[in-house]
Amino acid sequence: MRKVIMGNHAASHAVRLARAQVIAAYPITPQTQIVEELSEMCASGQLAAKFLKVESEHSAMASIIAASSTGVRTFTATSSQGLALMHELLHWASGARLPLVMVNVNRALAAGWNIWTEQTDSLAQRDTGWCQLYVEDNQEVLDTVLQAYRVAEQIALPVMVCYDAFILSHTYEPVDIPDQDRVDAFLPVFSPTRLLDPLNPCSFSALVQPEHYMEMRYRIQQSMDEAIGVFRTAGEELHRHFGRRYGNLETVATDDAEVVLVTAASMTGPARLAVRKLRAEGVPIGLLKVRLFRPFPTAEVRAALAGKKKAIIVDRNISFGKGGIFADEIRAAMSNVDERPKIFGYVAGLGGRDITPAFLEAIAREALEKEDPPELEMKL
Amino acid sequence: MKQQRITFQNVDDLPNVVVSLGTMEWNHTGSWRYLRPRHENKVPACSNACPAGNDIEGFIRLIGENRFAEAWLKLKEENPLTRTCGRVCFHPCEAGCNRAHFDMPVSINALERFAGEHADRNLLAKTARPASGKQVAVIGSGPAGLTAAFYLARLGHGVTVFEAMAEPGGVLRYGIPAHRLPRAVLDDEIADIASMGVTFRCGVRLGSGGDLSYAELVGYDAVFVAIGAHESRRLGLPGEDAKGVMSGLHLLRLVAAGTRPRLGTRVAVIGGGNTACDAARVLLRLGTRVGLYYRRSRAEMPAFKDEIDEAIREGVELHELCAPVAISTNATGAVTAIRLIRMKLGEPDDSGRRQPHPIPGSELEVPVDTVVAAIGELADPGALPPGVEVTGDGSVRVDDLGRASVEAVFSGGDVTPGPRTVVDAIAAGKRAAVAVDLYLAGAEKAEAAKVMRVGLGGGISMSQYLERSLAHERYGDSEHVVTFDELNTAYFESQPRHRLKRLTVESRLSGFAEVNAGLTDREALVEAARCFHCGVCTECDNCYVFCPDVAVRPLGEGKGYEIDYDYCKGCGICVAECPRASMSLAGEEA
Questions:
Q1: Which of B115, B182, B462, B574 would disulfide-bridge B71, Cβ 3.0–4.6 Å?
Q2: CA distance B178 to B175
Q3: How far is A274 from chain B (nearest CA, A)?
């Protein structure tokens, strides 16, 4: 059924269709509507889940960690400061190999107070052992949450689905909400291998000494490496079930391009327009949308950018003292490739500042003209 | 436990998750415990405040479960006059209700009336005990006498109630007007008691100058004297015996019996108690203009606040700080006016109320046709058994179980000292029924009195007396009364108290219809849901949900919980998260 809904409600519907069993969350703008809608679904009986009201995001994460340990499908959602408060437990979730799914609506961090979009909140959590995806529109929000459950349960690691505050969270777009039986066919019933069971009490997450700890970390890294392929397969299955294709990356007109604009999340929309316009003028430019950020699909990025002259990466985030985080990841991914492009990194759109097609076009033109990347990557 | 070294051949051999290979049940973490939690019901503040020791939490819970007739039966265990109390009780329970500190007290009184409207007399008979062969005479059929009769019958004794008036009910019938207690309701209440096998002999006045002397009461093993206080105090003023001066009790008795006395158009009521307010409101309904004259201020009036408020709303003119000095009469000896003097308040007297003093030269005269005096009631000394000790004001002296100074004679209600309210009379009747039962069985009273006690407020429980084991079902041995600060109010949400619906003043004054409306089923359910169930486990599962060690286990509906002390570490989270203080935490014995 196609309905015009906001991105947040697209997430709620996905969680309902995934038949989540325990939901714990603490309200924070711009996420609140996701769990508000879910609480109503629980109250009305549309969703047979236990909805836990908690006193903080830290407790929300602790609650779903505990719930997931008993072998149920869980959900939480947060944003910005809330995600920061969860930090300690994010490591716990991946270390305990729990297939949690969380939506993070990307919002700038304080101070100063800012509720608008920026990806620094989730990118600051990139080393917590969570998979991360950045999505472009409301349909992709719904589809990606379903994909997240499928992959998380297959690789026994948590997945974070990220999208931009207000630009997606509060904006209404037509979204196809699939029927339950179609989702059930795509997403099998969760059958965990190991359960926390009061009738057979075991000790969980106890002290691990140096002779084993590193091996456990190795296993996580191994699963992350596997996850790249698992996400790719799940994306193909999404296409088979619902007719919509999602790769780990998406390329637009890159085959014969000399220059590639690289974006993530909602700015990909305006980037499509900018690239189309430049192409119409005969500029040999293409577009690379990075959807999967963790695990980072290094091989796929290399394949897309090898042999190009320039890669123009626009980051709506910043690692202070370094620069845009996607640019840095791509720079690192291309470092051992002989035919690698010059990397032009631009930090833009922080704290919700608009990234328009005209703005992206201007960046692209600047990068096309200049021989070397600018020293200061921030584009005010 | 034998240590087992775990070795892995390679990385793939490692489990993904850090988890013990076997069960950890051998690890009795309960050995770390210093504090021991347990489920322990305690006394709710409402029951503690109720002179009759009603199981208020219990009947409200039954209403909440849609079990209305059972709620009535639960009330009936401790109070045979639930329909009556649901209307006329001054509800000290609501003053005690912990919810008052949260938003507003639970409307317990309205819920009690609601339960009474779902009475099912067939359920009642099942509660009687087998016959003892003993006979008890109950003198007086007011609330104390009716209560004693009901419980004595339940205890298996033969009971005969002697009533001086034509119909049973005492002050309930001849004192409290029908706009507060409809006669049909009272008749139902008495029919319940008669259905227990109680015999009523009406129109039989005991005592010297009565229809029957106490000596003629043969064949009775005990006597309970509950004749009330039906003699009015005299004003002690010139003109008091004039035509057109009467007592409040006399007026109420006449009207209750269907008489409509000639009163003229202007009536002065003297007094500030419930009789004065009842008389004033009845006079309005008889079509007169009513001035209520009280020598202190409104704040000192002993009448229930609601009665004063409603009297004024209906049109009674309250004149505070006015005391009568004389009644003026005309040549035929009829009242023409009342002379009053203005008062001012001085220092508090023994009762704690400020003492009124006349203001010299402030006398005034108010023309009236009738003066109704309601300044207090006394027992009729002639109606008492010969030889019983009385106090200074002629009340029967009794001990804490209602035993009078004469062998086999018990007494309670308004004829004995203490607060003169319906619920206090009910408590006295219940206490006396127990005392008579113990006397007839020759049993020791101290032990029984301990079993019956509800909290610290003096209320006693008949169910605890009847079934000693029930004591443990209700509040255990606890005398701990739950206070507001012991509750975990995070689990309660604000919800407005039910607003009592009343007739408009206009429709009230056209007759003697009941003023206050009852609750609908829905209103009752909403109001019942406001009860915190202080001190009594409702199986909300918080202890089970919060226990980090899964050491609290539900035993199934109605069976409560068990705590597995092998694993309970004594963290006390269960006790802290109990919304209603029905768990306790104590130091572990060394």
A1: B115
A2: 9
A3: 46
Pairwise CB contact (< 8 Å): B550 & A198: yes
More confident residue, B208 or B176: B176
Nearest CA in chain A to B21: A202
pLDDT for res B127 = 62
Return residues 53-112 of A near B (CB < 8 Å): 95-97
pLDDT at residue number B457: 75
Is residue B510 within 8 A of residue B179, CB to CB? The reply is no
Q: Which domains does chain A have, with CATH numbers?
A: 2-242 (3.40.50.970), 249-378 (3.40.50.920)
Residue B146, strand partner residues:
none
d(CA B111, CA B132): 35
Tokens at residue A359, please?
A: 């703005």
Report pTM: 0.78
Region for residue B53 given its phi and psi (left: phi exceeds 0; alpha: psi -120 to 50; beta: otherwise): left
pLDDT digit string, tens, across residues B208-217: 888 999 989 9
Interface of B with A in 19-38 (CB under 8 A): 19-20, 22-25, 27
Separation between Cα atoms, residue B315 and residue B357, nearest integer Å: 28
Min CA distance, B544 vs chain A (Å)?
A: 12
Between CA B531 and CA B541, with CA B536 as vertex, the angle to 5 degrees is 90
CA distance A159 to A94: 9
Residue B11: its chain A contacts at CB < 8 A?
215, 218-219, 222
How many residues would you count in chain B?
Answer: 590
CA pair distance B413, B395, nearest whole angstrom: 10
pLDDT above 80: residue B292 = yes
